[in-house]
Design brief:
Length: 57
């Protein structure tokens, strides 16, 4: 079975890199599901970064 991957990368530098990989042809994941998963992952990432900033103040 051939799979395609959708990758969203958030990085400030090479050490702080986050990849979200979704299997594009997964029958259980439609476009809206993928969009929601990406949004949730981005929210978590941003919340973690904000927490780090607050701790450093």
């Amino acid at each position: 079975m051939e799979t395609k991957r959708v990758c969203v990368e958030i990085s400030k530098d090479e050490e702080k890199k986050m990849n979200i990989i979704l299997i594009a042809r997964d029958k259980d994941l439609n476009a809206n599901s993928k969009k929601e998963l990406i949004k949730e992952a981005l929210k978590r990432f941003l919340n973690e970064e904000m927490q780090k900033l607050k701790e450093n103040l």
